[in-house]
Amino acid sequence: MQHDRPRLSYAALDQLPSSIARPARRSPAPVGIVHFGPGAFHRAHQASYVDTLLATDPTWGIAAVSLRSKGTVADLAAQEGLYTLAVRDAKSGHRVIGAHSAFLGPDDAAQIRTLLAAPTTRLVTTTVTEKGYCLAADGSLDFNHPDIAHDLAGAEVPRSVIGWIVAGLEARHAAGTDAFVVMPCDNLASNGAKLHAALIAYAGALDPYFAEWIAGEVRVPGTMVDSITPASDAALYDDVAEALGVEDRAAVQREAFTQWVIEDLGDPAGAALASAGATLTDNVAGYEQAKLRVLNGSHSTLAYAGLLRGATSVADAMRDTALAAFVDAMIRDEILPTLPQVAGFDHDAYRQQILARFRNPAIVHRLDQIAGDGSQKIPYRLGDTLAWHRARGEMPRRVVVALGCWIAFLMQRSRGGVTIVDPAGAALAAAAADGDAAAVLARLVSGGLGFDPALAGDDAAMAAIADAADAAFGGAWDGLLG
Fold first, then answer.
1. By Cβ atoms counted within 10 A, which residue in 6, 10, 92, 156 is the most buried?
2. For residues 77 and 105, what is the distance between their CA atoms, to the nearest angstrom?
3. Which of left, alpha, beta for 362 (phi over 0: left; psi -120 to 50: alpha)?
4. For residues 122 and 116, what is the distance between their CA atoms, to the nearest angstrom?
5. How much is the pLDDT for 1?
6. What's the order of all strands across the beta sheet hosting 181-184?
7. 3-state DSSP call for residue 228?
8. Element (H, E) at 172
9. Over the stretch 255-295, which tens digit does the pLDDT of each residue have?
């Protein structure tokens, strides 16, 4: 890192190379959005849409709020909210984003309250990870969560994003100000409905009449977001410094592909974001299902089969021509038929986009990272596709092989003494420690580890999955991928 370089700022914009895209404005835009969780994904994804929007409507500036640490907001503040988005793809490039106008950390409670109450704030967005919503296993608000219990006990400064959003809505309700739109942007199924229900439940513990107001007046559209965003590192900072001639400690990177699907509830915020490239739909669930089964299902398949075959990254696995062809056929012949039709969504074009993204050599997406937490991912990424076919009397051979590869992966890790990264890691290791694949599968199914226990009654599927797992574990790939 060249520490003698000047820091990125509005004053430095005119000195940047002409190849660098940059905001048209030379000062921060007024705040129209309060965003909780300004990590790399938000800055690479939602903020890039907002930056595009600001070129035509400069009233949507973002206030970045970090409830846990000061690091990111301090770096943004030091650069007047500016940072570089590096696109890593066949056609790479750099773009300076100027969407952020305020930078608030854990010690800025008064300013957060002021912005949430301000009539000019029309949208509150969140990227706080699934855990940040403090939900129970059934998707409802967890009143026993320490942060929720703390906030409902009358704490002056909330700890939870739920507590903060409700505090902002409470201030607006008291002042007779219209509610802002609340838009969760984490990959949580039915995220809008779950967050809306959580806000109502939390408010109900304070004042039932206020909860009714939230139920009737607060719009919480569901969303689906997607773009591979590797972590920022020293190599990125050096690359940006070399390309721009300035130091940027808030730089982020992502692939060229980006998708933001928003439930159309008729609100101006959704319409504004759609003008900047977001997709408005009445069927977010259809997009979610496609992502889970096509993108995530094939990702998991590449991870387990790829690791067993010696690959280390997604692009590396896609250079394995037999494996790449197998995944393509699985998507086309076994996954796409399970998806409902969604207006304006071309499933086959999506398949081709996914495969092109997987081949991107500029993104190093490690297979061992994708392979983690399989017991939680497998049921939705591959299990639902299997169930769809079995309900129709069909045996999806490639999905069966993919499931067998997960079992073989568990057997390999367990018997090699390698830790299985998964909330149920110890139980998975014990289940896979000895015996043939049929015995391992029986233990997994009976324990509800990645499989529906009801699968035990499907002898044909159990046998097919076990045979595939034994073949993968033994390296007999010709019969599996052919």
1. 10
2. 11
3. alpha
4. 9
5. 44
6. 100-104, 61-65, 31-36, 123-126, 181-184
7. coil
8. helix 161-175
9. 999 999 999 999 999 999 999 999 999 999 999 999 999 99
pLDDT of residue 3: 58
Could you read off the pLDDT of 71-90 as tens digits, one per residue?
A: 999 999 999 999 999 999 98
Would you give the DSSP letter of residue 24? S
CB 258 within 8 A of CB 278: no
- Dump strand ranges (E) for 127-207: 181-184
Tell me how far apart the alpha carbons of residues 261 and 226 are, in angstroms, rounded to a whole number: 9
Tell me which H or E stretch contains 94: strand 93-97
pLDDT score of 308 more than 90 = yes
- Cβ atoms 63, 120 nearer than 8 A: no
Kindly report the pTM of this predicted structure: 0.91
Decide: 62 and 99 in contact? Cβ < 8 Å. Answer: yes
- Mark residue 405 as left, alpha or beta (left: phi above 0; alpha: psi -120 to 50; beta: remaining): alpha
Distance from the first to the final alpha carbon of the chain: 48
Q: Which residues contact 108 (CB under 8 A, 6 or more apart)?
A: 65
Where residue 114 falls (left for φ over 0; alpha for ψ -120 to 50; beta otherwise) is alpha
* Closest to 386 measured CA to CA, from 269, 320, 293: 293
Q: 475-479 long-range contacts, Cβ below 8 Å, gap at least 24?
A: 475/308, 477/309, 477/322
